[in-house]
Amino acid sequence: MLTIDDILTVPLFSSLGAAELGRLAQTSADIHLLAGEFAVPEGGERALFAVLAGKMEVVKTIDGIERRLGWRVPGTIFGEVPLALGTPFPGGYRASEPSRVMRVDMRQYYTIAAMAPEFSMKMGALARERLGGLQSITAEPPKARVTVVGPRWDAVCGDLRRFLDRNQVSFEWLALDAPHLPAAWPAPPPIAQDCPILRLADGTVVSRPNTREVARLLGLQTSARAAEYDTVVIGAGPAGLAAAVYGASEGLRTIVVEREAPGGQAGTSSRIENYLGFPNGVSGDELASRALLQARRLGAEILVTRSVRNIDPVTREVLLDGDEVISGRTVILATGVAWRRLAIEGFERLIGKGIYYGAARSEAGATNGMDLYLIGAGNSAGQAAIYFANHARRVTLVVRGESLERSMSQYLLDQLRTKSNIAVLLRSEVTAAHGEANLTEIDVRDGATSSVRRVACNGLFVFIGADAETDWLPAAISRDARGYVLTGDDVVKAGVWSQPRDPYLLETSVPGVFASGDVRLSPVKRVAAAVGEGSMVIAFIHQFLQQAGRQAP
Questions:
Q1: How far is the CA of 493 from the CAs of 476, 480, 497, 522, in angstroms?
Q2: Rounded Cα–Cα distance for residues 62 and 169 (Å)
Q3: What is the pLDDT of residues 460-477, one digit of tens each?
Q4: What CATH number did the domain enclosing 92 receive?
């Protein structure tokens, strides 16, 4: 419990009168922190904090690396910048030793400031001083963690760049024909046969590494730290990350296995406009990066570049590539879906060389002044078209149907109409792709006239829906004809449930194995739905584990 004497140890409060001090003592929170606990995380809500005992470190994640910006010791405050600007906390404040802080919520702060103008002036002066310090940090040139060198249209180089970007690793890309390459790359000069070549910030140089080797060099986790977990989450899309956040926060030993990078298919979305809580929209990779930081902060392990080969339906052991085994008391399938491929002349040869499935924000900057074509009529295609239109000379949507109204949300249709450099070709389809080193032209068939014309094309992005890739699952985990995993009532209706109890809503035909997100048979395929199922599945896992504990001998 706070006393006036506690508050007077903070010089900022020494000028307050008895009434204001009494109000602070009655309304402020008295927070005791263990080493490693946050008083407020990065992005936390506005409030004023004062350190009464211990020591707080100021940390901020920059380019995927946590950076210490400073310290707060007894008698100092933090929170003045968010209060002055009306923004969330730009950094997190974490106890480096057992500490005690007082927290004044926003409403009480403004009440005290109105009662004591001198106090308000001191806060404003301190906020201006701290803002100057933040400006010096932002003025520092960013340092890339990795430099990548390779041929401009090399597909392996492209895959590596996308891997780095989706794992929030800052990098500099140098094409072999870039005029500034000699100045940016030390001798000896790189040659195509050795590419891609990576140079890390510490000077380490590696040639033709695979993604797992790159992940290890960058300190990304690729192997489990324990032999057994309460739940093993397969897939780090919205559903898997939500399960990781809620599982770890509720005390479950949680590990996530991801074969590429966190975010799943949603991570390639350039803009999600209708996700709750983001009035201005949010990109898929931004949403994924926030969830990833949250899951790791709460204690979940996230493995990348690891594929799951099989699941033992009896022991719930998960077999990874390389014959590594992770034992789980429960398993969550959150593998999502994969972009559906087109069987069109020239496509396979030019994938990664101008033809792409899905689109991430990082690819937009390389399309300045180009003529782009997008295949698809759903929300993903609409979001990408709007985002690319800010960079490309012209963006054309190629749609097989007669309109967009039946497949695209109204808010996207309204935005498309405002973009003068976006065109829509209805009743049309791409029939071939052409180019030697990279895509240069495509053939477009007009469904109304059956005529085919060849047009110049600098980039082709495909959004034609997705399929569940679940052939690797054991036969005991039942699926429908399209590969979507059956859960809950659908398991009972299919006659594949053998337990005396009913299956939980998100439980598969194998007790203790659950499914959430797009891989599950459900008519709703939304990011919000996947996040909801990822959080909800943890409640069912708790029930399952409690029941298993009661049944144990």
A1: 15, 12, 9, 15
A2: 10
A3: 999 988 889 899 999 999
A4: 2.60.120.10
